[in-house]
Specification:
This protein has 307 residues and is mainly α. The protein has eleven helices and no strands.
């Protein structure tokens, strides 16, 4: 290599490093823009709503008087709906992801299924609400209940859980499967003893991210009949007269945090807007807690895995 070629090579390397530096700066600016936007919105909610957050706010029912209004029925409804969503979406989504990745034959049928699952993750949430209204409310007769809301949100996050499960399984080295099969393990033994445990960190992250999305959804919940004002809680199992059944709460009317916030923001009084800001602050904290839990569990699970 002569001197001229060496000089051209150095110039090319310097130019590429310059572009790398420029891209890094643009990436940091984009990150800071998104982060500062979130901090600004979160700070605004905190300034307007922190004064309203107290024990009475968390343990009181909604009221026509802003000073007496609380979010008891809303946060309890959100928790119950999320319980139903988790029990419906997680087993079905993980099982579907495992089947598509480990059991399903590679043909045009599975290709169509994979394309549809990926596309369903981007469908607007109101479509799921209309589907649930016709299927769960009118066809199955489940009514405008906690069960209907939980199943609706389960449909919403099901593609997310399936995709996350498949991506987590794909990240497992092929040598683990080959070693297990070489020792005489069946497909079920490979999946249950190796694939799912090793992929559990990624699966769990996808599940909690999906749940964090579901807890803030409004459109599908309104479509299936969430109430904007409710001043009672679902009857606890084995209480009341006559005693309620173990699963009677599933068919109770409900409201959730986003619906309660929507109701308050539609009021003209400034005090109700402060209530909505306080409820939004709590909802964001709930979402951040779920995401923080996902990060912590992923770290612990990956730390305990021995490849």
């Amino acid at each position: 290599m002569n001197q001229q070629e060496l000089q051209n090579l150095r110039s090319m390397i310097v130019a590429h490093k310059r572009w790398d530096y420029l891209f890094g700066v643009l990436g940091i600016l984009a990150l800071m823009l998104g982060l500062m936007t979130f901090v600004a919105l979160f700070s605004d909610m905190a300034v307007n709503g922190l004064a309203r957050i107290n024990v009475e706010f968390l343990t009181s029912f909604p009221s026509r008087r802003a000073a007496n209004a609380g979010i008891l029925s809303a946060w309890v409804g959100s928790v119950l709906v999320m319980v139903v969503t988790a029990f419906a979406a997680v087993p079905l989504g993980v099982a579907a992801g495992v089947y598509l990745e480990e059991y399903a034959p590679k043909n045009w049928v599975t290709d169509i299924i994979e394309i549809n699952v990926s596309n369903l993750a981007g469908v607007p949430s109101i479509i799921y609400g209309l589907l649930a209204l016709g299927l769960f409310v009118y066809t199955f007769g489940l009514g405008q209940s906690i069960l209907t809301a939980g199943l609706t949100l389960a449909l919403l996050i099901l593609p997310v859980v399936i995709v996350a499960t498949r991506e987590a399984i794909r990240g497992i080295p092929q040598i683990i499967r080959e070693g297990a099969y070489a020792c005489g393990a069946t497909t079920w033994q490979v999946v249950s003893d190796h694939i799912v445990p090793y992929a559990s960190a990624g699966i769990l992250t996808g599940v909690i991210i999906g749940m964090a999305r579901a807890i803030g959804e409004t459109a599908p919940i309104i479509t299936v009949g969430a109430l904007t004002f409710i001043a009672f809680l679902p009857t606890a199992p084995f209480t009341g007269e006559p005693p309620a059944g173990l699963f009677d709460w599933l068919f109770a009317p409900f409201t959730v945090m986003p619906i309660q916030m929507f109701n308050w923001t539609s009021r003209p009084e400034a005090a109700f807007l402060n209530n909505a800001a306080a409820a939004g602050f709590i909802l964001v904290l709930m979402t951040l807690t779920m995401n923080g839990l996902a990060i912590w569990l992923r770290y612990r699970l990956r730390k305990n895995i021995k490849w």
